[in-house]
Write a structure and sequence with these properties.
mainly alpha, elongated, 4 helices, 114 residues, 5% strand, 2 domains, 3-stranded antiparallel β-sheet
Amino acid sequence: MNRGVGAVSQNQALNALVFLYKEVLKVELEGIHALRAKQTTRLPVVLTVAEVGELLRAVQGEAGLVCKLLYGCGLRLAEGLRLRIKDVDMGGGKVEVRRGKGDKDCPASSATCQ
């Protein structure tokens, strides 16, 4: 706590010491009442609809197209950058996601864009 270390690091260090004494040294820890560090919860920063619209209008060219696909279809960056023309079904309003997270390559992994 004195060095400004995060809660996860503090808890990991405490767990390592407890493991060392109990499992390696076979020493029973008695009379030690250590408290686990509490993680702080942070609210996510979310853009307003107006801010998203302004952002998407400001990005032009290929980068703008990719940004709009990422946002509109809920794609991950790598998925958006791997898209090819044959992956986009303009008539059906669908985008085929290939080699997505978990390497799921099937029609069920298609994203429907709005």
